[in-house]
Amino acid sequence: MPVAASLPKTAPERVLDSARFINQHSKDVSVPEAGISKAAQEIIGRMKQTGYSTKEWKRHTLTPSVANSAAIEWIFVVDVLNFSFWSSQKDACSQYTVTLDGKPYRGYWSLCAAINRAQRENTHITSAAYYANASKEELEHVFRTDAPETQEAMPLLEQRIEVLHQVGQVLLTKYGGKFINVVKQSQNSAARLVELIVRDFPCFRDTHEFLGQRVELYKRAQILVADIWACFEGQDYGQFDDIDCITMFADYRVPQALCHFGALEYSPRLMEYLKQSERVVRQGHGVGVQPPAPGLLPSGHPWEVEIRGNSIWAVERIRQEIVASGASVNAILIDFYMWDYAKAHPESMHNIPIHLTRCIYY
């Protein structure tokens, strides 16, 4: 009797396979099992105590409060540009800042504030017909900082303009100018939607080589799916029957939280490198150097891949521990919770450095 051919693995499955491979072959980052058990207990305990759920997504002031087609286009633009928000400026007054309704926003939230500000100014920033062909000057105005004389510009602004043009042209050419048409083609499958995103939009192809093997991490493609799911609370366009296949979104903030909870561990030489690099970069140096010289950690460097891959694996192990205890949770909610926790408790994280990489992947 012939043996049935196995189905090709989905994009999220390939991410998890990549994370497992990275974990098994890492030299400077590890996922301590004792730390996983402790972190799982503490995280699920905190999540239950606060009633943490997808509802948290719409409770943020800047995210769409209504789940409709306009929200999907807003989410798409935000996640196209959802990368590299850390600042080289130590003083908050010198950092890229967008003030809306009297409140200054920095980091990721500055992007959301800039998009919302543009909409209030009647700029069709979430329309592919606009951003596919918008001039550099127009988009520089959209993403302007509050005080250009004293504050840094939005990091990687030229790359952000480039990817907006890129994805806008793809939408106009293949999907009638609307990302909602991509969502419809997914047929309620999160894995299928990730596959469509990385197939048709090159800027989402977050792949690297590690020890001679291609590894796939797909931070922005997966968080795009997760944001739609959270906004719609798993209903309507956010209904994905396989949503639990999505992995953690490997960036620079959640690894910091994982270290704090004891679920991720750096070797002494990597920890020293990261601490020195924070000091050097804040002083305006460290560009174009190669580790172990302190400075910007290049995208695709083994240390950077180890941090990201092990972060995905650590969250997967935490998820497994929580599920084994009888609770129900997926990697998305664990990631969302840990990101929110890191942003809300910076004082708890000040001794744990983030890795400083400038790239369009996260």
Helix content: 40-55%
Query: What gyration radius follows from the Cα positions, in whole Å?
Result: 20 Å
End-to-end separation in angstroms reads 48 Å
How much β-strand is present in the residues? under 5%
Summing up helix and strand content along with how strands pair, one would put the structural category as mainly alpha
Major sheet description: 2 strands, antiparallel
The total count of helices amounts to 16
Summarize model confidence as the mean pLDDT: 96
Low-confidence stretches are: none
> What general form does the structure show?
globular
The neighbouring-strand order within the major sheet is: 1-6
The helix/strand order is HEHHHEEHHHHHHEEHHEHHHH
The number of strands is 6
Describe this structure in words.
The chain is mainly α and 362 residues long. The chain is built from 16 helices and 6 strands. The protein has a two-stranded antiparallel ribbon with strand order 1-6. Strands 2-3 form a two-stranded antiparallel sheet. Helix 1 (11-25) crosses helix 14, helix 2 (33-50) packs across helix 14 and helix 10 (190-200) packs across helix 11. The chain is globular and about 55 Å long. The model has no long low-confidence stretch (mean pLDDT 96).
